[in-house]
Amino acid sequence: MIKSVKSAAVLSSTMALAVALGAAVPAMAQTTVTIATVNNGDMVVMQGLSSAFEAANPDIELEWVVLEENVLRQRATTDIATGGGQFDVMTIGTYEVPIWAAEGWLTAMDNLPDDYRLDDVLEPVRAGLSYDDTLYALPFYAESSMLFYRSDVFADAGIEVPDQPTYDQVAEWAAAIHDPDNEFYAICLRGKPGWGENMAFLSTLVNTFGGQWFDMDWNPQLDSPEWAAAVNFYVDLLNNYGPPGASSNGFNENLALFSTGRCGMWIDATVAAGMLFNPDQSQVSDQLGFARAPIDVHPVGSNWLWSWALAIPASSDAADAATRFVTWATSQDYIELVAENNGWVAAPPGTRISTYENPNYQEAAPFAGSVLAAIQSADPINTTANPKPYSGVQYAGIPEFQAIGATVGQMMAAALTGQMSVEQALASAQSSTERVMRQAGYID
User: Fold this and answer.
1) What integer pLDDT is reported at residue 111 of this predicted model?
2) Enclosing domain of residue 335
3) Can you give the pTM of this predicted structure?
4) Rg of the chain on CA atoms, in Å
């Protein structure tokens, strides 16, 4: 049976008392749990607070491998596919979990402690981390996407932002507030190539412009008018009103730009709200407005659904110890530990009903209701104007998409930097995607 954190804490206290009384304490053999995680802010907080877990579980030693998002995905995928066993806990998402679970690469998250309160976890998040009605990862945080903007700059420009803006309005606002001479850029968007970087945003843009990755016969659609309209809009917007070097900017780079007052708008993950409203991390915490992710002709599919989750590879030789850590790091008690140390505004968002029902969180996080609504409204199935054969909002939930998205992401970055035209980039993307789908047997 898995020991609860509470039981381990009692054990730790008992040992401490024995030491104080001069009793001999036998040496305890430690199990090393190696954790691969992404270098996002919430994961850095988790690493910092993990000493509390080790104190309560003296038989477990945590070893951290913290990586940039694209590098994490490459290393985790290689290790899991080869059964390397390098990691005992992997930070993965709603894309990987059902695919890897179907391959038998993940340990099922069943027989969780009663006090874990699985029914407290938001249903869309649980569903995204399940395969064949079985949970295979526990959510550390979950997110959709939204628009952040500088409320003071918009007020000075006489701009009022509706709850549901459009991309036409975003372009108009960008022209009105752009001030590159003072190193203030109207909009920041993901430009760094990667299926989870620039293609995460671009996929939602394509969705709301009426396009999709594949038709119902799995034919790629990247040469469609909808893709051309979306990518031309994206390239023009960033080249006219974005920061220099936008093709190198992912989530963390844009977070740094916005939080230091150099961006007027940013469309990205809702998880950023807790960081931008936190005065310890953001210079614009009192000058921040937010709205739903903008839309175009098709209102659905403009806001994504994602969860960074903790999973245990089937190749781990420390599954019991890893389970203890994963249940601790995704528990309601952990959320309260973050709030106690960093304030409620920093609590990991998007996972538990109890967080959004907590008056302390509601008071500290004015964005809470909007984030919850965005997560609950994201629909991985009914996402596009025309029917599609795949699940996923900002990705296509098939094994081949990781390679497809990475390749197309490089081509979109080339279009952004002017190395090729949008037309050339989309033609190359269509051709390469067709080749992959044909080799995989989806199309003739």
Assistant:
1) 87
2) 5-143+305-364
3) 0.90
4) 23
